Amino acid sequence: MADGINDNAAYSEKLEIKKVVEISGMDETKTTINLAFKKAARWQIIVTLAFCVVYLLISSVNAAISSFLGGAAALIGGYAGVLMTRRRSDQSAGGVLVALLKAEATKVMVISVLLLMIFKLYNGLVPLALIGGLAASVLVSGAGLGAIGNNKK
Amino acid sequence: MDNMQFLALIQAYTGVGIGLIIGLGALGACIGIGIMCSSFLDGAARQPEMIPVLQGKVFLLLGLIDASFIIGVGLAMMFAFANPLLSVIH
């Protein structure tokens, strides 16, 4: 029963990827990453906004803005990583791995620079709210992994 | 001890703490990424047609493995730029 459900999910995922490949003209690997990022980014935005509202209710506007900035830094870093994977690269396993590691390095660099800028430039910063928003947004990015094998878009 | 000595002590230990946070975080992330990448290469060598499917999952797992490191970097920056421990000497 469970195998049947998994087969069904994998088949519908392949159909979805095929459809996007036909429409966009991108290759299959990049389409898979784009779909995964899209699903992860949706959850990141939801959690960031939820944290923002919670900090607004229990603390101050500055805490809410700090939380939002933390979540936004993680989201922008993730997008920078996806942009790096879109560049033309070797389609062998080694080439794919090198492209992914470059993307990850870019992501970490972008997030670090953004955090540095926030700490330096934002005077009303609430550090714990920033770290809370950042942690929640980064951790929930794994939600895209669970969504890859599902029918949900 | 006067306040200057307390300040120097707190800053020194905070510096050591920041180094440990970033260093141990980077070590853990590197070990995790190494294990995952070797598994990816293993799977790709056995079933090359699965590379596109595996790539998306590898990308998301890279993000998850790096999550603790990125949170550590954020915490380290908090201790470097807005150290809450310094408030005890004011």
Structure description:
The complex is a heterodimer of chains A (153) and B (90). Helix content of chain A is 84%, strand content 0%. With 153 residues, chain A is mainly α. Chain A has one domain. The two termini of chain A are 23 Å apart. Chain B has a domain at 21-82: F1FO ATP Synthase (Up-down Bundle). Chain B has two helices and no strands. The longest helix of chain B is centred in the N-terminal third of the chain and has 44 residues, at 3-46. In chain B, helix 1 runs antiparallel to helix 2. Chain B has helices at residues 3-46, 51-81. The two termini of chain B are 14 Å apart. Chain B is mainly alpha-helical and 90 residues long. Chain B is rod-shaped. In chain B, 28% of the residues are buried. Chain A binds chain B through residues 13, 17, 28-29, 32-33, 35-37, 40, 70, 74, 77-78, 81, 85, 91, 93-94, 96-97, 100-101, 103-104, 107-108, 111-112, 115-116, 119-120, 125, 127-128, 130-131, 134-135, 138-139, 141-142, 144-145, 148, and chain B through 33, 37, 40-41, 44-45, 48, 51-53, 55-64, 66-67, 69-71, 73-75, 77-78, 80-82, 84. Chain B: GO terms for molecular function: lipid binding; proton-transporting ATP synthase activity, rotational mechanism.
